[in-house]
């Protein structure tokens, strides 16, 4: 039924523009042209130069015939070229595919074929794996994308050029586009990011301009980020598009401080030299900083704020960050919700609590981002919300503008993920009385021993409270009597020693007897490029070891 407000009040170019983070780059170039935008070793670019370089890349891609719905893949570390790809590709309404730099050639070839990449921008450091991937792509799928080689000024290692085009020469050969415009329709795809593929082929998560724009705004609001932040790239930009922070930094006229390698000394040196005040990382990276020699932190006088996600942070890590003077914000999300889409909002009263209680409160997955329409814990069978009693288990689910379009070429998986009108995360959690969600475990990581459910996260949290433990992961080990028992893999801090018996006795004071790890193995724990522990590898190890005993 129409009303008086439907007549002669149509959308037009003056009152409606599709939301796209490309607009953030144009604004910063317009109003903050002379302010620093990118720092990378000896290279420095202000916002006018960054916009110019991005617009030249966009022009070059357009000259190759790249436009709406075409995929541009990148195999890059956290360098200026990676920042520029996040600005240039959306500006011509193409789709950005950031490749995980730790993947092997067959999986890279599979992804490049699945997303039908027409252009590949690759750093020559990765030539040893990209070269074979391109050969597989041609031999098995008949695809030959345009290859653009990046020869980073800060990389002096080996690596051949694979294509006929060099990045800097390409930029020099193309005048910049007049404007980084973005799409006509904000529902258009902005990126496709692949899940880890722990069961079967990876799924291509397709996100849209509207969601990327809104999540970039949410990042700033959630963190109360000031204008002109100095943001250090410890988080790989290939992971969920850097949790949308390439666009958040552009919105705020901030400075990207690039980092090719994530090492404690390099991180602290960058913080000290460039006045870094914000960074994001998985728990393992924060633990590296906590356990680094104190002299490496000397001279860092500014307040540094860290954001943690990627895995549930142990309370000991949250306490450790507070002890070294870093302010930590815990966020939660998945690739399917643009990275973080929930946050453990710190309430004013928490500051008066003990450090251990603050760690417990901050360790929860929390509440939805301000621009996410829904997040709660539902019974996946009935789709009814669980009681907010801190005991009743359900599954965390999201709905709203910060949820993916769906999985590329996978309608069955898309339909299953959206059953009942909510996105199903697979994370089992409770709602506490203040309506903050707290993950108990991933559904596949719950250990069922003698009919009792054991949260692997709870056992890990107990282990992390031992001063010798740097990293740990607990998985189910097949057991002929109990069905499954907890098996712990542990990495110790450099110079530390502890026996398995001592660790189990330590856990005994924190856990019920049936939850204690029955075995502890001291060995390196497999991790993704973002520092996330690969439990699926450990589950396979545990099953294989049990099978041969």
What does this protein structure show overall?
By secondary structure, the chain is α/β, with parallel strands linked by helices. It has three domains: 47-208, Rossmann fold, CATH 3.40.50; 308-383 and 390-442, Roll (Luciferase, domain 3); 446-548, ANL, C-terminal domain (GMP Synthetase, Chain A, domain 3, 2-Layer Sandwich), CATH 3.30.300.30. Helices cover 31% and strands 24% of the residues. It is built from 17 helices and 26 strands. Strand 12 (278-281), helix 11 (283-290) and strand 13 (305-308) form a beta-alpha-beta unit. The mean pLDDT is 92.
Q: How many structural domains?
A: 3
What is the total tally of β strands?
Answer: 26
Shape: globular
Distance from first to last alpha carbon? 72 Å
Q: Percent of residues in helical segments?
A: 25-40%
Which architecture name of the largest domain does CATH use?
3-Layer(aba) Sandwich
Low-confidence stretches: none
CATH fold-level assignment of the largest domain: Rossmann fold
Annotation field: number of helices: 17
How much is the average pLDDT? 92
Q: Roughly how many Å is the radius of gyration?
A: 24 Å
State the CATH class of the largest domain: Alpha Beta
Estimate the strand proportion. 15-25%
Strand order of the largest sheet: 2-1-11-10-12-13-14-15-16
Main sheet summary: 9 strands, mixed
Structural class, judged by helices and strands? alpha/beta
């Amino acid at each position: 039924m129409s009303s008086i407000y439907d007549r002669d009040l149509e959308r037009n170019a003056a009152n409606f523009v599709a939301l796209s983070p490309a607009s953030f780059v144009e604004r910063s170039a317009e109003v903050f042209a002379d302010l620093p935008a990118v720092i990378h070793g000896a290279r420095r670019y202000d916002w006018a130069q960054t916009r110019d370089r991005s617009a030249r890349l966009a022009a070059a891609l357009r000259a190759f015939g790249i436009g709406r719905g075409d995929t541009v893949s990148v195999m890059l570390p956290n360098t200026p070229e990676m920042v520029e790809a996040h600005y240039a590709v959306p500006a011509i309404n193409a789709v950005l595919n950031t490749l995980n730099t730790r993947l092997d050639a067959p999986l890279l070839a599979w992804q490049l074929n699945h997303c039908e990449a027409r252009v590949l921008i690759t750093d020559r450091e990765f030539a040893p794996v990209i070269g074979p991937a391109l050969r597989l792509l041609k031999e098995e799928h008949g695809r030959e994308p345009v290859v653009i080689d990046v020869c980073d000024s800060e990389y002096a290692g080996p690596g051949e050029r694979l294509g006929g085009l060099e990045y800097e020469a390409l930029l020099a050969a193309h005048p910049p586009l007049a404007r980084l415009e973005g799409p006509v329709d904000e529902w258009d795809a902005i990126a496709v990011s692949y899940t880890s593929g722990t069961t079967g082929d990876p799924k291509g998560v397709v996100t849209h301009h509207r969601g990327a724009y809104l999540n970039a705004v949410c990042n700033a609001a959630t963190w109360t980020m000031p204008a002109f932040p100095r943001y250090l790239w410890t988080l790989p930009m290939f992971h969920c598009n850097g949790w949308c922070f390439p666009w958040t930094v552009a919105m705020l006229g901030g400075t990207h401080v690039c980092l090719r390698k994530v090492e404690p000394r390099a991180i602290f040196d960058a913080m000290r030299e460039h006045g870094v005040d914000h960074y994001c990382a998985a728990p393992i990276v924060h633990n590296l900083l906590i356990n680094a020699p104190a002299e490496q932190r000397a001279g860092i006088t500014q307040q540094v704020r860290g954001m943690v996600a990627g895995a549930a942070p142990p309370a000991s890590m949250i306490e450790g960050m507070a002890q070294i003077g870093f302010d930590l914000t815990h966020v939660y999300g998945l690739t399917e919700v643009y990275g973080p889409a929930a946050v453990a909002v710190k309430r004013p009263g928490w500051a008066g609590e003990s450090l251990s209680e603050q760690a417990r409160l901050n360790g929860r997955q929390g509440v939805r981002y301000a621009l996410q329409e829904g997040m709660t814990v539902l019974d996946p069978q009935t789709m009814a919300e669980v009681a907010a009693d801190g005991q009743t288990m359900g599954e965390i689910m999201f709905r709203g503008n910060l949820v993916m379009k769906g999985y590329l070429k996978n309608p069955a998986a898309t339909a299953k993920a959206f059953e009942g009108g909510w996105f199903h995360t697979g994370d089992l959690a409770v709602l506490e009385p203040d309506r903050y969600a707290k993950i108990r475990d991933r559904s596949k990581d719950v250990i069922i021993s003698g009919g009792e459910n054991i949260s692997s996260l709870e056992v890990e949290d107990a282990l992390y409270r031992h001063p010798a433990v740097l990293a740990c992961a607990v998985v189910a080990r097949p057991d002929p009597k109990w069905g499954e028992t907890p098996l712990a893999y542990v990495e110790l801090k450099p110079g530390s020693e502890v026996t398995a018996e001592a660790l189990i006795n330590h856990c005994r004071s924190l856990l019920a007897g049936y939850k204690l790890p029955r075995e502890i193995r001291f060995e390196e724990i497999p991790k993704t490029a973002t520092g996330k522990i690969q439990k699926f590898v450990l589950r396979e190890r545990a099953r294989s070891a049990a099978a041969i005993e």
